[in-house]
Amino acid sequence: MAVTYLKKAAKSPTSGEDNTRAIVAKMLSRIEQGGEQICADYALELDQYDGNIVVTRDEIDAAGQRLSQRVKDDIRFAHERVQKFAQHQRNALSDFEVELSPGLWAGQRQIPVQTAGCYVPGGRYSHVASAIMSVATAKAAGVQHVIACSPPKPRSGVNDAILYTANYSGADTILALGGVQGIAAMAFGLFTGRPADVLAGPGNRFVAEAKRMLFGRVGIDMFAGPTEIAVIADASADPRIVAGDLVGQGEHGPDSPMWLISLDLEVANKVIELVPGLIEHMPEPSRSAARSAWADYAEVIVCDSREEAVIVSDQYAAEHLEVQCEDLDWWVNSLSNYGSLFVGEQTTVAYGDKCSGTNHILPTKGAARYTGGLSVGKFIKTVTTQRMTEEANREVGAAAARISRLEGMEGHARTGDDRLGKYFPDEVFDLGR
Predict the structure, then answer these.
(1) I want to staple 150 with a disulfide (CB 3.0 to 4.6 A). Which of 28, 68, 122, 270 is the partner?
(2) CA 132, chain centre distance (Å)
(3) What is residue 16's three-state secondary structure?
């Protein structure tokens, strides 16, 4: 396979994980032992915030009054599409019951979790869209109580637009807490008395690690890290559009991978030429973040065939994957590993990130090999049921007893024996004794 790297990353998405893990483990331990006071201490130490942790109704209303009508309209525009898409996802999850053999019925039910914790980033940027993606999706799933959590600014608290959006999307409680302390508060039920059953939402490496460490005690949407973009481009692609899309994701942070998989050497070289200039024309802090991301985490690969490009792309399993090529249907049918696919030049990651309707909380670090992004299904338990007649025990009970004894599990076998003896006292069965 002829694959050429014109640019190779100096770092990988897993760089620096050991140090992060140690910091997060210490914080989680302190918060679990010390509870709400330790969370408040971290809010003061890390965010210089000493206001209300549980945001009041008056604070939510005041935040809404400070926003322009245009901002509110844009938030509602995005919410309408995300909520509609999530509702269609919910409608696609159905309960059923089927008779597997005479007298034996088995089925499934879709039951929402009771409490969801939704983290909304608010550090370098105020991720208004993330409030919609997590909170509205949880509500569409039917979650009874949704807790939204977002980092406060010194003295002023949670960003006004995030407060308005979380409330508009249906959050029942909003906490002014960031980072590990916010994740821990939702997981342990601090300030609310409602421990989260599922934690969802993007965040920095400390947030991602806190979710990873708490997995098992609570469910999580996915293992996630810094945001990623991959673009597959052939000779028909516009290098300026490709370069702009890469830079657009690079502004997320200095550790955000950017990958170009090109079928055309000229396009690849032109993108490499354009990216630094586009970065330097960005305002701060976007410029510094994208500059570091391009220097340390970007790769440009040239493939001889589209089949090779598919193999390379599926190995990366990028969070966001754009295809700017001819014969788009071929690519859609051939690619397997990605968090969300953006088909053709006319769409871009930013549309999905902000308002087009699909969810922007997506798998990173190769997790797209085995999971998709946030959906209503992440907040729903698919549970099974069974019921059967006495007559059905004649067949099932005997088979279960024989299999149990084959495995050496006599106690299991005898539960079948008991029913056969009660329902069919005059019959003799082969029970594997």
Answers:
(1) 122
(2) 13
(3) coil
| Amino acid at residue number 238 | D
The pLDDT tens digits of the residues spanning 337-396 come to: 999 999 999 999 999 999 999 999 999 999 999 999 999 999 999 999 999 999 999 999
Residue 376, classed as helix, strand or coil, is helix
Instruction: For residue 219, give the amino acid letter.
Output: G
Q: For residue 136, which of 179, 167, 91, 174 has the smallest C-alpha distance?
A: 167
79: annotated active-site residue: no
CB 252 within 8 Å of CB 230: no
Catalytic residue flag (residue 145): no
| Residue-level pLDDT at 223 | 81
What is the per-residue pLDDT for 137? 97
User: What's the rounded Cα separation, in Å, for the pair 58 and 13?
Assistant: 41
Report the C-alpha gap between 326 and 371 in whole angstroms: 27
6: phi then psi, degrees, rounded to nearest 5 = -80, -25
Q: Which of 1, 4, 50 is nearest to 301 (CA)?
A: 4
Provide the residue type at 167 as one letter: N
Q: Which of 59, 209, 228, 319 is catalytic?
A: 319
**Distances, alpha carbon 17 to alpha carbons 114, 181, 209, 244, 329, in Å:** 32, 19, 8, 29, 38
Rounded-to-integer distance, Cα 17 and Cα 226, Å: 12
Structure tokens at 207: 């947030």
User: How far does CA 40 lie from the centroid of its chain?
Assistant: 27
Q: Residue 233 is inside which H or E element, if any?
A: strand 229-233
- Say which of 79, 320, 322, 360 is annotated catalytic: 320
Tell me the pLDDT of the chain averaged across its residues. 95
In DSSP terms, 219 is beta-bridged to: 198
Contact (Cβ atoms closer than 8 angstroms) between residue 268 and residue 260: yes
And the tokens for 394?
Answer: 């004649």
List the beta strands (DSSP E) in 257-389.
Answer: 258-262, 298-303, 320-324, 340-343, 380-388
Cβ–Cβ < 8 Å for 190, 180: no
Helix (H, G, I), strand (E, B) or coil at 234: coil
> What are 335's two structure tokens?
């690619």
* 13 pLDDT tier (thresholds 50, 70, 90): low
The burial class, CB within 10 Å (0-12 / 13-18 / 19+), for 424 is middle
